[in-house]
Amino acid sequence: MATASSTTSVAELTGSRKRSRRLAAILDAVAEQGEISLHGLRELVGGSIATVRRDLTVLADQGLLVRTHGGAKATSSVLELPVDLRDTRFQEAKRRIARAAVALVPRERHAVALSGGSTTAGVARELAHHSDLTVVTNSLSIASLVAPHPRLKVVMTGGILRAQSLELVGVLAEGTFSAVNIGTAILGADGVSAEAGITTHDETEARTNHAMVASARRTIVVADGSKIGRTALAQMCPADLVHVLITDDSADPAELDRLRASGVEIIVVAAGEETPAA
Predict the structure, then answer these.
(1) How many angstroms separate the Cα of 183 from the Cα of each of 82, 155, 277?
(2) Cβ atoms within 10 A of the Cβ of 188, count?
(3) Which residues, listed in sequence order, are joined to residue 234 by a DSSP beta bridge?
(4) Does residue 175 share a domain with residue 148?
(5) Euclidean distance between CA atoms 123 and 134, whole angstroms
(6) 228 burial type by CB count under 10 A (0-12 exposed, 13-18 middle, 19+ buried)
(7) Is the confidence at residue 36, as pLDDT, over 50?
(8) What is the CATH number of the domain that holds 39?
(9) Last residue of a domain, which of 31, 57, 78?
(10) pLDDT of 249 above 80
(11) Which residue segment(s) compose the domain that 115 sits in?
């Protein structure tokens, strides 16, 4: 896993969104299969064997996977994509999810809490069209997106910075969320299921986001279809605390039915078309 002391991000090393999407696809394949061959990766992402080898070198140098003689395997510490790679995936679906979420935010004085993540970052961009909102967040990325808009008031939590997600976590962040009254919490997720609830890869981040949900009158979860039916390490909240889930039409319909049975209102947007990874 890339550490806080790393001075070069994956995005700086990749140089283009096209390559970033390819690296994200490689990390997904390694995480899902545990180990995969060079030829398997070439079939997945396209390009030449030499290109795949260069991609693996970038990811191995950042500690995100382990090179093997014929391919790559996951490390025990790799649990999530770095934020600069996550932002390149499922972009059109995330834009449509963000617009649907913002349409549910009242056009009046209101406090909105946003967790970190690429989908919630899309929500933050869309909130620029609102006024008289207070945005409470523990995400440096979200705060930087909202800050240029003078009609939006930004409240940042304290806490310890997680390099992978650029979020502030821990007791200081939890204390900030517990001290304010939030109208709508908009929560990103690494996994969404009726059984496991809304989950993320880091237990400290999960506790911080649970404090956000506990302070909110309404919770909206925004997650692209790849997250539906998945379970990550730590629960942020059970499904029955979620009022609305906004996802896209690539989501597993059976899992959406199970979430509806848990009392969650489901809004499904069109996924749109993605640019191929290679």
Answers:
(1) 30, 14, 39
(2) 29
(3) 200
(4) yes
(5) 14
(6) buried
(7) yes
(8) 1.10.10.10
(9) 78
(10) yes
(11) 90-269
Residue 7: the pLDDT is 41
The helix/strand/coil state of 187 is strand
> What total of structural domains would you count in the chain?
2
DSSP type of residue 260: H
Residues 198, 230: contact at Cβ < 8 Å?
no
**pLDDT per residue over 102-153, tens digit each?**
999 999 999 999 999 889 999 999 998 888 899 999 999 899 999 999 889 9
Please name the residue ranges forming H helices in the chain: 10-14, 17-33, 38-45, 49-61, 83-86, 91-102, 118-126, 140-146, 171-179, 203-214, 253-261
Residue 212 contacts residue 184 (beta carbons within 8 Å): no
- The answer to whether residues 277 and 28 touch, using CB atoms and an 8 Å cutoff, is no
Q: 69: which DSSP letter?
A: T
Give the position of tokens 């080898």.
53
| Amino acid letter, residue 126 | E
And the tokens for 115? Answer: 């967790």
Q: Are 197 and 117 in contact (CB under 8 A)?
A: no
Q: Average of pLDDT values for 187-199?
A: 96
The residue type at 7:
T
Sheet containing 66-68: order of strands: 35-37, 71-73, 66-68
Return the sign of the alpha-carbon dihedral for residues 33, 37, 41, 43.
negative
Structure tokens that stand for 141 in this block: 């990325």
Whether 83 maps to a domain, the answer reads no
Same domain, 54 and 112: no
Q: What is the DSSP letter of 215?
A: T
> Is 71 found in the same domain as 184?
no
Give pTM, 2 decimals. 0.73
| Statement to judge: residues 97 and 65 lie in one domain | no
